[in-house]
């Protein structure tokens, strides 16, 4: 599991880096040479979508979504485990159809491409769809782990301890 999470973190980080590099290169080329990079806008939008889906997958696994711990604080360990499982099931119920619809969109792209370089949009959308699928899988996995009684890093607790986001 650690290797899968490490890969997920790497994918999200690489695409954030690519966004930064593409934006910096476009600004530099525009200021220094007077032209913009072809497809920089479409490329940055597609890369952002990829980074967001893979980041959501990580947040789902770590349980580090926005936390309101009013109920959480009142529960004991067993109640927290059940609440964590319920939240994970709700996340899975949300992310599974989202992942499905992103894959449907990938299937319906046909030969659509970016405007300048004619890069197929399906390349970008497929990587984003894989991130959406990872979010759904991580939510299901997290629910099963919680229902199985395993202690998971909880987002609210980890954030208080300085280990989460």
From TrEMBL:
Membrane topology according to the record: Multi-pass membrane protein
Cellular component, GO, one term: plasma membrane
GO molecular function terms attached to this record: transmembrane transporter activity
Location of this chain's protein in the cell: Cell inner membrane
Superkingdom of the organism of origin: Bacteria
Domain called Tripartite ATP-independent periplasmic transporters DctQ component: residue spans: 19-147
Keywords associated with the record: Cell inner membrane, Cell membrane, Membrane, Transmembrane, Transmembrane helix, Transport
Membrane-crossing segments per the record: 46-71, 83-103, 123-144
Main localization category: membrane
Any one Pfam family match given in the protein's UniProt record, by short name: DctQ
InterPro entries: DctQ (IPR055348), TRAP_DctQ (IPR007387)
A biological-process GO annotation: C4-dicarboxylate transport
Role noted for this protein: Part of the tripartite ATP-independent periplasmic (TRAP) transport system.
Subunit structure of this chain's protein: The complex comprises the extracytoplasmic solute receptor protein and the two transmembrane proteins.
PANTHER family xref list: 2,3-DIKETO-L-GULONATE TRAP TRANSPORTER SMALL PERMEASE PROTEIN YIAM
Annotated family: Belongs to the TRAP transporter small permease family.
Protein name (Swiss-Prot/TrEMBL): TRAP transporter small permease protein
């Amino acid at each position: 599991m650690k290797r899968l999470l490490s890969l997920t973190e790497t994918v999200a980080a690489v695409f954030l880096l690519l966004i930064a590099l593409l934006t910096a290169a476009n600004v530099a080329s525009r200021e220094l040479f007077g032209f913009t990079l072809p497809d920089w806008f479409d490329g940055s939008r597609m890369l952002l979508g990829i980074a967001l889906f893979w980041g959501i997958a990580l947040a789902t696994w770590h349980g580090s979504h926005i936390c309101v711990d009013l109920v959480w604080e009142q529960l004991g360990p067993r109640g927290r485990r059940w609440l964590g499982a319920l939240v994970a099931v709700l996340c899975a119920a949300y992310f599974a159809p989202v992942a499905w619809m992103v894959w449907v969109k990938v299937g319906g792209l046909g030969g659509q491409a970016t405007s300048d370089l004619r890069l197929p949009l399906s390349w970008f959308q497929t990587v984003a769809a894989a991130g959406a699928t990872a979010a759904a899988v991580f939510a299901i996995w997290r629910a099963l782990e919680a229902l199985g009684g395993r202690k998971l890093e909880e987002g609210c607790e980890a954030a208080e301890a300085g280990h989460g986001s």
